[in-house]
Amino acid sequence: MRPSITRTTPDTIDHLAQQAPDALAVIDEDRPISRARLRRELDCMAAALHSLGVAQGTHVALACEHGYVHWLLVLACERLGAVSDAVLDPRREDWATLHQRAGLLLSTFSPPPMACRHQLIDQPWLDHLLGRLDLPALPVLASDPGAPARVARTSGTTGTSLRLLLSRADVAQRVRNWAQLLDLDSQSRYLLTLQPSAATACYQAAACMQAGAVLVFAPAARAWQSLARHGITHTACLPGMLAQWLAELPPGFARPAALRLLCGGAAVSPALRGQALARLATSFEDVYASNEAGLIATGQSASGDAAGRLWPGVQVQVVDGQHNELPAGHTGRIRVRAPGMAQGYLDAPQADAAHFHQGWFYPGDVGVMPRPGQLRVTGRESEVMNLGGLKVSPEEIEARLSLPGVPAHELAVCALPGEAGIDDVWVALCGEAARQQDQVVQALAQLCNDYAWVTFRVVQLPSVNPQAPGKLSRRALRESIAALRTDLRQAAAPGS
Known about the structure:
Largest sheet: 13 strands, mixed
Strand content: 25-35%
CATH topology of the largest domain: Rossmann fold
CATH superfamily of the largest domain: ANL, N-terminal domain
CATH architecture of the largest domain: 3-Layer(aba) Sandwich
Number of strands: 27
Shape: globular
Strand order of the largest sheet: 2-1-10-9-11-12-13-14-15-22-21-17-16
Number of helices: 15
CATH class of the largest domain: Alpha Beta
Helix content: 25-40%
Number of domains: 2
């Protein structure tokens, strides 16, 4: 049974503005926004979209880098009953497929990659719509929990993200889950750290509004600076982001008086957790979730694996390769059922077959249930690398490092656990790729910008697969690099 919807986020903002119009609602990169101003800017944005032909059921694609503006666009779509679809990475978007669905593209880049209806989001356009005085009456929506509301995206494990269509009831369920998990109140201040295109960011923002808390937007590169400046009490981040924050903290950093930190997307090492509690947070909690199923488990793991208690209403089983449930304590494939769970991907039958089976979602993780209601995640089924919470295929990295005239099997990528608990990416070169190492290192510069918390290591090998030269084996590559790493550590050890 689908959960009922009590109040949408736009309705919640209306209520807050009526209750205390001058109270602080949002801080957008140090710009304070009252509840009344937030409602006014949301109304202006909705009116602007309505004038562009956005109505109930319209599919609106969003490619906006500014967190607060992106959130307003999502809320405006919700107020109009439109379906919002956030583009994760314009460089890797399947524009042909998106064009078939989208009635309008709102973006900060121009020109659009395809001939579709397009509105450029620039400062003059924003200044005009947010400053207008004449706001037309907007249509009143019929309450339909099953109506489509949002397209959520995976993090792009194959270079092109997978789409999930969520109903209004699905979205409402996820907002309620985050509201319960965050446990905010009117005195709370929440720092939103995720990219605006991430669906979870919108659920967290909505949870803030429901609690009457202050929502703080800050650029990811400077997010940690906002912790003390704005008196942040709660935040959630990826492990890679946390590692970057800790590395950048100055010696005299003033630790927040009370900061509850949630971390998800990948396992957090005991060392990283210990550093966070010593220098940043007063409490720390792991979160195991997915775009497909929502919240799955939360807790505090002493082992370094993502582990914890199952979220209320969530079913988890550990099964073998034939979908048979395994006894407690046995390691196998994780599968999930949850309220508000997506029922499959859009336009991706192969992915559907791989991850959805008989009402269960298979996230591609391996784990164990030590006892009923408790889950520990121990690894991944596939070759996908988990770079501090971002799932990235080795092929995607290899494609960005490819050089003219270099055979594909002479440049290969794999990930091994690093010292900070974040996977290091090893780039193995042989043959012609090794002879062009300088060019590879130059290409790595952009990757270092995109994955600032990831350590990339370049190494030359006689072959990426000694057992079968000319044919890539990811397992053989990891074994070769692991052995090389051990040799390097031994050579660097004192007295060696």
